[in-house]
Amino acid sequence: MVYVDANRPDLVEGFTKKTFTAMIEGVRDAALASGLIAPDLFDTGIRDLRRTAEADGVFCYTFFKGVGAKGGAPAPGPAGSAAGGEAQRSR
Predict the structure, then answer these.
(1) CA distance 28 to 23
(2) Among 45, 52, 64, 63, residue whose Cα is nearest residue 8
(3) Domain ranges, residue 57
């Protein structure tokens, strides 16, 4: 997890602005071209992200790992066990 506020100006600049917001801004053309989102809605989201970098803003992001399987094979559970896959099939 990353938590950033004005008490960590290095993270405001280096992570919130130059990494995360820049990454999202970089997919604008592709997102619009594919019809995933309307331009005004995308731009509102970017404004909101920039707002988190202001003096009273807060940015918090949790990284997670996703696992996919081709052909319906179950994904492994914790530490590679089959438990996770079994739970997926029963749903």
Answers:
(1) 9
(2) 52
(3) 1-91
Which tens digits make up the pLDDT trace of 32-90?
999 999 999 999 999 999 999 999 999 999 999 988 888 876 766 666 554 444 444 44
pLDDT digits over 32-44, tens only? 999 999 999 999 9
As given in the structure block, the two tokens for residue 7 are 């008490």
Q: Computed from CA positions of residues 30, 20, 16, 66, in that sequence, does the dihedral angle turn out positive or negative? A: positive
Contact 13, 59 (CB under 8 A): no
Count of structural domains within the chain: 1
pTM of the predicted model over 0.70: no
Q: What are phi and psi of 34, to 5 degrees?
A: -85, -5
